[in-house]
Amino acid sequence: MAECIRYINLPKPPSSILEDFKQTSDMFPDFNDAFLKTEEYCELIDEWCKINICDSLKFGVQVIKHDVSKHKDNGNLYIPQSKLVYLVESGGKDVITKFWFDNDKLFREYKIKTKCWHLIKVNTLHSVHGIEPNKIRWGISAQMFHNVE
Question: Can you give the CATH number for the domain in which 108 is found?
């Protein structure tokens, strides 16, 4: 069976810029939506990632407050096959990301490590379970696309 998560040894963002984003963003502490991927990203995070990870990717911040049902990530002109993610906070000690066959049978499940970069297959049906009340799952993400033309 194919893997859906692969950890990658890349430089870790400094905790100071992550904490700065958390302290100054409108998403914390009163974020009420279940899910948000923001273009309101911290310039310091984007700059640091472009210098230390890849200068041709756009880095954003993803925040999840509640479990996320089964879905595939979609784009308009491009379909993302995978995302590069640095999970800052998991949303609880037992949060699991599950991957599903299209017939709704469980394929794989992972307890994704925090403070590590990983690639995640997002063109596969996946869901997130176990986010604790009053906890937030958040991290840096960058999409890698392929053209469907």
Answer: 2.60.120.330
Residue 62 · residue 37 · CB < 8 Å: yes
Q: Alpha carbon of 32 to those of 6, 28, 85, 129: distances in Å?
A: 30, 9, 22, 18
How many separate domains does the chain show?
1
Distance, first Cα to last Cα, the chain: 29
29-78: pLDDT as tens digits: 555 554 455 555 577 888 999 999 998 888 888 888 889 989 887 654 45
Query: Could you tell me if 141 and 62 are in contact, meaning their C-beta atoms sit under 8 angstroms apart?
Result: yes
pLDDT category of residue 145 using cuts at 50, 70 and 90: low
Q: What's the pLDDT score for residue 60?
A: 83
Please give the share of the chain, as a percent, with pLDDT higher than 90.
46
Residues 6+ apart with CB under 8 A from 21: 41, 42, 44, 45, 61
Q: How many helices (H) and strands (E) does the chain have?
A: 2, 10
State if pTM tops 0.70: yes
Range of the domain at 59: 5-147
